[in-house]
Amino acid sequence: MISEAGTPQKSPIERATTLPQGRPSPAGSPRNRHTQTSSSNLHLSQDSSTKGQLANEDPAVVTHEQFKAALRMVVDQGDPRTLLENYVKIGEGSTGIVCIAREKHSGRQVAVKMMDLRKQQRRELLFNEVVIMRDYQHVNVVEMYKSYLVGEELWVLMEFLQGGALTDIVSQIRLNEEQIATVCESVLQALAYLHSQGVIHRDIKSDSILLTLDGRVKLSDFGFCAQISKDVPKRKSLVGTPYWMAPEVISRAPYTTEVDIWSLGIMVIEMVDGEPPYFSDSPVQAMKRLRDNSPPKLKNSHKTSPVLRDFLERMLTRDPLERATAQELLDHPFLLQTGLPECLVPLIQQYRKRTSTC
Predict the structure, then answer these.
(1) Which pLDDT value is given to residue 178?
(2) Residue range 183-212: average pLDDT?
(3) What are phi and psi of 240, to 5 degrees?
(4) Distance CA 215, CA 247 (A)
(5) Exposed e or buried b per residue across 126-140, where buried means at least 16 C-beta atoms within 10 angstroms of its C-beta
(6) Residue 37: per-residue pLDDT
(7) C-alpha distances out from residue 54 to 73, 118, 328, Å
(8) How far apart are CA 64 and CA 27, in angstroms?
(9) Could you give the residue range(s) of every CATH 3.30.200.20 domain in the chain?
């Protein structure tokens, strides 16, 4: 991640509901470098159309106590420490930690994000994440159970997905077209729902896709979401992860839900090639190439079917108005190859077997 001051940092809470961090990437892979951008590191301003929305106000205007008071209005009441036991830390970042814990009353394992409010570069993103996950539920979206204020920390209790993140799989294992279609269909179902509610995810990538052990696919990482409406129909913030950013985001043009479709197209390239385009470039150089060049192509195009290539072209179209919507893509012939969730289980098992022998 890049801080407000432009200083490189570790991502605060990456892939919060996955298995423990620290898994090795393939030799020579720069995957640990991909840099989330949600700040003025390129000397760009915030959304210009967010007047009156607390989640998008200039953080300098809102005091720490005012922000806590606003959070109290959207989180649950009570102390989660009385409800949970057997904490096991599975991740740590610059602004908090992630644990697995067990609910005393049910025995269910949950993932718990514990985020220090005083260390947040953009506090409004925490507000966004809580509100979006509270208000919008879908079978292909990671479920948030509860959220609490605990002293100076925000605790978010979420479902724990033991299958891990898609990024772990694509960096080591090639997916076949049935598996690619199955992942895409689930993600598009989630996006079609969110977009119908005026929600832009703004950080679609393989890291944001989590799997259950039985192969179900869920969208996560809602900290960069934005809400659009009749009053605020478009956004302009530079938000997302550089290698997956749509050209209009990088160009600072007004944008809407179409940016998620471009990012999904880049994720399809990940599933075919193992990494996004320009991944050996610096984030800034990759952004320049995405902004100025023709849409990126598959390195292994010769190994894919014409229908997959057409599916990808419908997403990686520079003109947002010509780009397919999530609902349109759900009707694309490529998704006729969609299988049952079980078709993804061998990928999970193969990855877990590889990492257990490392």
Answers:
(1) 99
(2) 98
(3) 135, -160
(4) 32
(5) bbbbbbbbeebebeb
(6) 60
(7) 12, 17, 33
(8) 43
(9) 31-159
Dist. CA 49–CA 274, nearest whole Å: 37
Residue 188 above 80 pLDDT? yes
Q: Give the residues across from 153 on adjacent strands.
A: 116, 150
Give the number of other CB atoms < 10 A from CB of residue 320.
18
pLDDT, tens digit (0-9, with 9 covering 90-100), for 202-227: 999 999 999 999 999 999 989 899 99
Interatomic CA distance for residues 25 and 211, integer angstroms: 19
Structure-token pair, residue 185 = 């269909």
Ranges of CATH 1.10.510.10 domains, the chain: 164-356
- DSSP three-state, residue 255: strand
Percent of all residues in the chain with a pLDDT value above 70, rounded to a whole number = 82
Residue 44 has pLDDT above 60, yes or no: no
| Reported pTM | 0.82
Helix axes 306-315, 258-273, angle to 10 degrees: 140
Q: Is the dihedral of CA 261, 262, 266, 269 positive or negative?
A: positive
Residue 41 has pLDDT above 80, yes or no: no
H/E element, 347: helix 345-356
Give, in words, the CATH class of 31-159. Answer: alpha beta
Kindly report the CATH class assigned to 164-356: mainly alpha
**Maximum Cα–Cα distance across the chain:** 57
Catalytic residue list contains 203: yes
| Residue 113 labelled as part of a binding site | yes
Selected catalytic residue, list 47, 203, 221, 273: 203
